[in-house]
Amino acid sequence: MPLEPEEFDRWYGRWDPLDPTTVADFMEGFDRPWWIVGGWSIEAFTGVSRHHEDLDISILSSDAEVFRRFLGDTWTPWNVDEGWLRPFDERFKDVRPASQVWVRRNATSPWVIDVPFTPDTDGRWTNKRHLAHTEDLEDVTWVAADGLRYARPEVTLMFKAARSRAKDRKDAEVALPRLDDRARSWLREAVARMHPDHEWARSL
Predict the structure, then answer these.
(1) 156 neighbors 38 (Cβ within 8 angstroms)
(2) What angle (nearest 5°) sits at the alpha carbon of residue 58, between those of residues 53 and 7?
C-alpha cells in the first residue's frame, strides 16, 4: 500500500526532483542512451502541465553498471525492487533488469531522480512487462523541441494502462485524443498483448 507523503518522508526521505530544465546538466557526460519517461513525457507531448512528484528517466539495463560508475562518489544510488531498498554500490552491483534506482547525494539529502531500468535484448528496447516485445529505441522515443529524448506517448500510456492512479487517468485523458492513427494502433496492439480485456484493446 502506498505511503502518505509524510510517512514516506519519515521512512525514506523527501524528494526535491530534477525536471526537464535541469536533468541534462545532471546527465552530462553519460554517453549511453537515456530518455525521460512517465508523466513528464506526456507533458512534453501534450503541452498540458500538471504536478509531478519526481522525474523519471530510463536507461538500458545493460548500462546500469556504467551509470553507477558515472555517478561516482558525488551521488548515492539505491536500488528499488520488489521488497527492498538497498545501496547500489560495490557490495550490491547485481540489479534486476526491470528494477530501478533512486539517486541522492547522501543520507541527509533529498532524492533527485528516479531511474527505472529498461531491459534490452541485443541493445533493443524490451517491454519489461512482455519480454517478447522488442523495438529499436528510436521507434519508441522521440526528441522534443527542448532537445531531450522522451518516451513516445503511446509507450508511456501502455505502462499506465493497468494503473488506477489519478495522475495516470489524467495523462490518458489529455494524451489519447492527440494520438495519431499509427500511435493508436501501436497502443491497442501493445495493450492487447498484456491486458486483452482492457477497454483500450477494443476501443482504440
Answers:
(1) yes
(2) 30
Please, is 133 exposed, middle or buried when counting C-beta atoms within 10 Å of its C-beta (0-12, 13-18, 19+)? middle
pLDDT tens, residue order, the chain (204 aa) = 567 778 878 878 899 999 999 999 999 999 999 999 999 999 999 999 999 999 999 999 999 999 999 999 999 999 999 878 999 999 999 999 999 999 999 999 999 999 999 999 999 999 999 999 999 999 999 999 999 999 999 999 999 987 778 899 999 999 999 999 999 999 999 999 988 888 887 777
Cell numbers placing 153: 506517448
Helix, strand, coil percentages (3-state) for the chain, rounded to 5, are 35, 25, 40
- Sorted by sequence, the CB contacts under 8 Å of residue 161 that are 6+ apart come out as 191, 194, 195, 198, 200
State the cell numbers at 40. Answer: 513528464
CA distance 91 to 98: 20
How are beta strands 84-87 and 76-81 bridged, if at all? antiparallel
Q: How far is CA 196 from the centre of its chain?
A: 23
